[in-house]
Amino acid sequence: MLRIALTFLVLVVGFSVAGAGEPSPRQGTALTSPNPSRAKVAVSSMQLSLETRHAGDNTDGSCVQCSLTHCGYHSNVPAAALLLVDSQYGSAVRGGSTPSRVASYCNARHIPAWNITGEGNGVTTGTKAWMRYAAKTRRFAAIGFTPRHFETLWGYDYEKQKWLVVNNQLPAQMRVEEYSDEEFMRHHLESGAWIVVLKQPGSENPVLEEWWK
Amino acid sequence: MEEQSDGFTWVDWALVAIALLLLACTCRGSEPPAAADVTEEGHRETVRRGNHREDLGAAEEGPEAYSIGALSPPEDDSDRWWICVVTRKSDPKSAAASAKLVADFDSSIDLRAWADKDNPELSWAHYCERDIDDPKQADWFRSIRSQLLDNEFPAVVLQPPANGSYGKNARTVGIIHGYNSVPQYMSDRIRAKIKAYSDDFSKRKFAAAAKAAAPSMGHSQAAPVKPPLSRHPNEWPDVAPPKPQALSYKRVRELCPQAPTAWVRACVKDGIADEDELAEAYDELLEGQVNLNHPTQPTSSSLWDLVLVVGTIGCIPACLILWYQLRKNSSMSGSGGNASGSNSSEIDGSSTSNTQACSVPFSPRPGGY
To answer: Are residues A80 and A68 in contact, defined by beta-carbon separation less than 8 angstroms?
Structure first.
């Protein structure tokens, strides 16, 4: 009898594991290459290595600061890059945030940024217009994505017409995920239309190339 | 193994172990419970704010920090070039020069014309400062680190715009190493680098467009690519341009079809390489500043001058001779005036008639020289 019970327990647990291992309900697919800079398509994106991305690991619900950390590394804004740790710019900023809290610590640390809320008309105003602007001008952004969560707007793939997003939660392992416009906006609005864009843009990592030949 | 009490065998223990292991995997594999990344209050505040834009970081917290600006994003600035000042704080030798360069980008109009740190919206280029020893910037320096470390600091790295109008943004247009504390010098170097790159890029683009537009019919001449600037110390690229080749006889003949052979040979011998310079010399030739005809055949303008000079000089002795003859005739009363008549006719012919002096071979050639 005990053996039967144990066998049943094993089967139940086994099915549970199988169920937990399924992909998240989100439709995104991770790029096969963890480094989008190796892609051969016309892409405007950050170029942080995987190791650098892990500087923004989310261990305690600090997703807004984690995303701003990525933006700070990309644009070389140390006050934003060091939000999660104690530094000369202030104590570590941990935990969940609101637009007011973001405004408070950005003003205290003199981090030039825009704090944008609202859907606007979706074309010239609102968070979508700002995200298009941020991707094109290489500022990128910390964006609301999926309920009660913030992720990093990593870039935009102009050839595939896909948005690129990095999730700072641990199981996602900082993979770059791509979404169609519809999926992207759906997940963005689930969190509420709110994004934070650093004013300082960042160039692509320079390479030495004999352009005169 | 002996059976344990309560019917536990090793098989049972194995099943328990497997069950515990699977439980542990389940706990690790699943996503953590939803943390309060964006709190409920944050979500409500987002709703309350509605369509709102807030500019952060410019002032201390207070009413002035909250400016409700335009709801649209600013103007697209992806067409700006990039200027990055790279310093090395661990190098005390370059500290003074680095500080001076950063300060001059603040104060000197020669450098502010390129990048205005205080007014980014007015700046011609995006400006940034990076320290090569900053571990947070390791990704950015990966490809150019060795080039930078082998040369002086500070360094100025130039990149083209992000919108692709001048090629890939990742491309390094040029690197200027060191700073001699003269802002104008740095400004000149930046200008030279960007100009050389943009000239080269435009030529390639034009050649590619021409090639795409015209069908290929045999030979396709590649557009000449201008080499980069002449060798300049402490810069990248530092490739010396090839020596300019003198124009060939055939080329000079093509460009100067009406020039005499001797003139063409003289140009080739002199080693003229610049077609503009050749065109100028040819223009001077056509304007008659150089005698195109056979050296023994004067031009019409020089002929006319000669006539006037001879005529003027010839008038004096002619007048003297006439006067002498008249006096002689008057004293001899009636002796041969034929000689004087003939002389005077010759004199009249050579001194009085402006148009008759231009008879063949001195008449102007029809159509000019």
So the answer is: yes
